[in-house]
Amino acid sequence: MQVKNFMLNSRAVTVQLLGLVALLYLISGCDSDETRKRRFLLKGNEALARQQYQAAMENYTAALRLDSCYADALNNLGTVQYRQKNYAEALEYYNVALGCKPGFINALFNRANTYYELNYPEKSLQDLRDLEVLKPDTMPVFFLSGLIHTKLREYDRAKASFRKAIRLDSLNAELWVNLGTVHFYARQYDSAVIVLGKGLAIGPDESNAYNALALVYTAKSDFTEAEKNINRALALKPGDSYYLNNRGYINLMKGELAAAVDDINQSIAAEPTNAWAYRNKGIYYLMQREFQPALRLLQQAAEMDPYVDDVFGYMAEAYFLSGDMVKACQMHTESEKRNETKKLNFIKCN
């Protein structure tokens, strides 16, 4: 069960805007290489802010022709790639920026974000540890740390990180929502409801709080409250692909398969990289007892995102129901190793 993006929205990639464009005209009379490269940087920043990525790249590249180790331009070229989800290319630029300017905080934080997107959690955590030394009171450092520990299913560490972030910014509703989400993943459902309520008290239009509450109530088999909350989330963000997928999951758990697969298909069409939607479509086929497409989709979800919950448990169930006990036990062992929520007490393995 997916809580939307778990943060890409809130982890704005840092792009340092170095001043007002008007400043360029005050200093344009002294047309040194330093002045010219800063002019290109600021023009690139303006283009980046308008999402004009090609123009931004051209200006940053022009700045680098004047200074091939201009860390600000290298960092912002990385951000151009990051914004377009070209994470491998972004990582290269951040690495070069840090080679030119060790300890460059913007590039270090951006690289930590990029490692997170590339599923290199330990590398991301190392950058965050370095940032904590350099900037010990920076909320986004603890925010991203909380995301990573959640992904690794290290829930106590995740909660500790989010609480540190909350101490630095207690009126940030999204921090409370993410802390509540960790309680959900840790199966502490009553605590999750309380913490998510605190988030909604701060930000009553925080759609992801309703989304998370819907998942909590689904886990508690309270489908009336689950539907009420997922529909609130969708009312705030109509057509959101993650929320549609979660509504599809709720319908799966209710046994309303036609409504479920309709939502899941809409989610995949809108966001084809969402591994959780493929997992849910696999569950749909499993419930239809169509084991081959179920296993294909569940395997696809596992390959797309190794942190999708319960996928190995559902694969174990599919193999068990199709009569393949060897593979059922292999998947059951993997599910237990990952401490997945789904429990398969009916599968007996030696």
Please explain how this structure is put together:
The chain is an all-alpha fold and 350 residues long. The chain has a domain at 1-135: Serine Threonine Protein Phosphatase 5, Tetratricopeptide repeat, CATH 1.25.40. The chain contains 19 helices and no strands. Helix 9 runs antiparallel to helix 10 (173-185) and helix 10 (173-185) packs parallel to helix 12. The radius of gyration is 23 Å and the shape is globular. It starts with 20 loop residues before the first helix and ends in a 13-residue tail after the last helix. Residues 3-29 have low confidence and may be disordered.
Indicate the topology.
Blueprint: H1 21-27, H2 33-49, H3 53-66, H4 71-83, H5 87-100, H6 105-117, H7 121-134, H8 139-151, H9 155-168, H10 173-185, H11 189-202, H12 207-219, H13 223-236, H14 241-254, H15 257-270, H16 275-287, H17 291-304, H18 311-321, H19 325-337
| Count of alpha/pi helices | 19
Distance between the termini: 30 Å
Q: Examine the secondary-structure arrangement and name the CATH architecture of the domain at 1-135.
A: Alpha Horseshoe
In CATH, the topology of the domain at 1-135 is named Serine Threonine Protein Phosphatase 5, Tetratricopeptide repeat
Query: Quick one: biggest sheet?
Result: none
As a percent range, the share of helical residues equals over 70%
Shape: globular
The computed structural class is mainly alpha
User: Helix-strand pattern, N to C?
Assistant: HHHHHHHHHHHHHHHHHHH
